Amino acid sequence: MPVIECDPDAARSRLEEAGVAVSGGNTDHERWRAERDGATAVAYNDKVVVQGSDPAGLTTLLREGGGRGHVYFDGASRGNPGPAAIGWAIVTGDGVVAEGSERIGRTTNNKAEYAALVRALEGARDYGLDEVDVRGDSQLVVKQVRGEWNVNEPTLRERRVRARELLDGFDRWSIDHVPREINERADDLANEAFDGS
């Protein structure tokens, strides 16, 4: 259960700017409540407590963000196509500041990798990062996004366009292929989504 030390009024403004509905608190001690994607944020005088099955969508919006971060992504399918899941993590000088994982239905490994990249970039955008260094263990996705390899499959082409739109929203970005052991947290999160952990 993440506890975010922050100014609740500023945090509320960030949520509302992102289109999250905010309502009054349920007790005299609660300043406000907000819900998104199965998670609930409850504001008190100097902090916000987030609870639920997937708190990352709210925690990324509640933190003030800014600055530079490393964004790790991984998608996997068991079978090709088969059941698929994604994992992602955002790391700044403060450590892991946001992460997430989810099952995404039945798809190919490459489509899962792109889904993970897009979700990770959305998380970095919502967190408010100005600069991102993106890392993934899919050479295909990295080289396609950088424009070194062609994208022939229509769905992958659409996801590449979406990834580039998100990347272009940052002041500076890079994307590089890394070995799986460097991408371990995102890989673990994708596997946890498969296992229901």
CATH architecture of the largest domain: 2-Layer Sandwich
Measured between the Cα atoms of the first and last residue, the distance is 15 Å
Number of domains: 2
Radius of gyration: 17 Å
Total of helices: 6
How much helix, percentage-wise, in residues?
25-40%
Runs with pLDDT <50, length 5+? none
CATH superfamily of the largest domain: Ribonuclease H-like superfamily/Ribonuclease H
Order of helices and strands: EHEEEEHEEEHEHHEH
**Strand segment count:** 10
Mean pLDDT: 90
* CATH third-tier fold name of the largest domain: Nucleotidyltransferase, domain 5
> What spatial form do the alpha-carbon principal axes imply?
globular
Question: What share of the residues does DSSP label as strand, in percent?
Answer: 25-35%
Structure description:
One of its GO terms (molecular function) is nucleic acid binding. This is Ribonuclease HI family protein. Pfam families: RVT_3. InterPro entries: RNaseH-like_sf, RNaseH_domain, RNaseH_sf, RnhA-like_halobact. Residues 65-195 form the RNase H type-1 domain. It is a single chain. Strands 1-5-4-3-2 form a 5-stranded antiparallel sheet, with helices on one face. The protein has helices spanning 8-17, 56-62, 109-127, 139-145, 154-168, 184-195; strands at residues 3-5, 22-24, 32-36, 39-43, 47-52, 68-77, 82-92, 95-107, 131-136, 172-177. Helix 2 runs parallel beside helix 3 and helix 3 (109-127) runs parallel beside helix 5. The model has no long low-confidence stretch (mean pLDDT 90). The protein contains 6 helices and 10 strands; from the N terminus they run βαββββαβββαβααβα. The chain is α+β, with helices and mostly antiparallel strands. The longest helix is centred in the middle third of the chain and has 19 residues, at 109-127. 36% of the residues lie in helices and 35% in strands. It folds into 2 domains: 3-62, TATA-Binding Protein; 68-195, Ribonuclease H-like superfamily/Ribonuclease H (Nucleotidyltransferase, domain 5, 2-Layer Sandwich), CATH 3.30.420.10.
